[in-house]
Amino acid sequence: MYELIRAGASTWYFQCPAKIGVWRANERDVYLIDSGGDKDAGRSVLKILNEQGWRLKGILNTHSNADHVGGNRYLQDKTGCKAFACGAEAALTRRPLLEPSLIYGGYPFRELRGKFLMAKPSDALDIGDEAFPKEIEVIPLPGHFIDMVGFRTPDDVVFLADCIASRETIQKYGVTFLYDVGAQLKTLDMVEQMEAAMFVPAHAEASADVKHLVRVNRLKILEIADRLLELCRTPMMFEDILQGIFAHHQLTMNAAQYVLVGSTVRSYLSWLRDTGRLTIDYTDNKMLWTAMH
Question: 276 and 291 in contact (C-beta within 8 Å)?
């Protein structure tokens, strides 16, 4: 855990649950790409940076999910470094209660206010701030989350954040979290055409070629959409649809899975409604989703 692996002439990543990138701007100063899930992640990373004789200059956050910004607070307290995120992601990093609120759809009950969904607040500047390193290319990757981005370092290493999941993750969970299904499909199309010396997804193995994995992710999205349409051949309420998805993928419901899978299913339903494949009816004060025939 937290093994430092070289990915390019001036770029490394930490092998950890959500990969953390390291770009060395000069002999002394480095930038992290994401910071891990909590202060323990931040502590582990900072220890290794210090052993290398590197000074942490800043954190480039791909998005505001807790497993990517959870180390920010500790690292900022210890080093005074700046952190950067894009648009709404910067706002959610500063106000992390917004994340479980958004995913749940209301004020989150206490099981949703732990570090799994809600990081400690940290100062985050927008990536348009003049202090953001100009050598880094910002790559918009919307879909998994609102304003998620990836980064390309000067030595052509691309950090893809959560835009593609590993085959193992897809097989284990079946339904991986998505905020905007239509945007995710467009992002996958774009990533499939990209070239780089090395790609580093946060939750899949680093590789010089991710095209096949992109296709695996796309096929899973389309499979889930088809399953939802099959479930909605007769009018169904949301909770019944969600139960059908859990049963189909043999998932076990708990608080975190309820909101993550539930929020994702709502996003699929919205996309299918907006693309004309589902209708909504209101009967006996129930909202019913029905597939178009």
Answer: no
Q: Is a pLDDT exceeding 80 seen at residue 293?
A: no
Indicate left, alpha or beta for 175 from its phi (over 0: left) and psi (-120 to 50: alpha).
Answer: beta
- What pTM was estimated for this model as a whole? 0.96
- The packing angle between helices 39-52 and 72-79, to 10°, is 50
Structure tokens at 140: 């918009």
Angle, CA 57 vertex, CA 37 and CA 30 arms, to 5°: 85
Q: What are phi and psi of 4, to 5 degrees?
A: -90, 120
Domains belonging to the chain, first-starting first, are 3-221 (3.60.15.10), 231-291 (1.10.10)
- Six-digit token pair at 242? 């969600």
- pLDDT per residue over 92-114, tens digit each? 999 999 999 999 999 999 999 99
Residue of 16, 121, 115 whose CA lies nearest to 77:
121
Instruction: Tell me the pLDDT tens digit for each residue of 246-263.
Output: 999 999 999 999 999 999
Q: Which residues contact 271 (CB under 8 A, 6 or more apart)?
A: 180, 181, 182, 225
**Residue in this structure with the two tokens 């909770």, named with its chain if needed:** 239
Order of strands across the sheet with 20-24? 3-6, 11-15, 20-24, 29-33, 55-60, 82-85, 125-126
82-121 burial by CB neighbour count: b if 16+ within 10 A, else e?
A: bbbbbbbbbebbbebebbbbbbbeeebeeebeeebbbbbe
Distance CA 124, CA 84 (A): 5
Cβ–Cβ under 8 Å, residues 155 and 197: yes
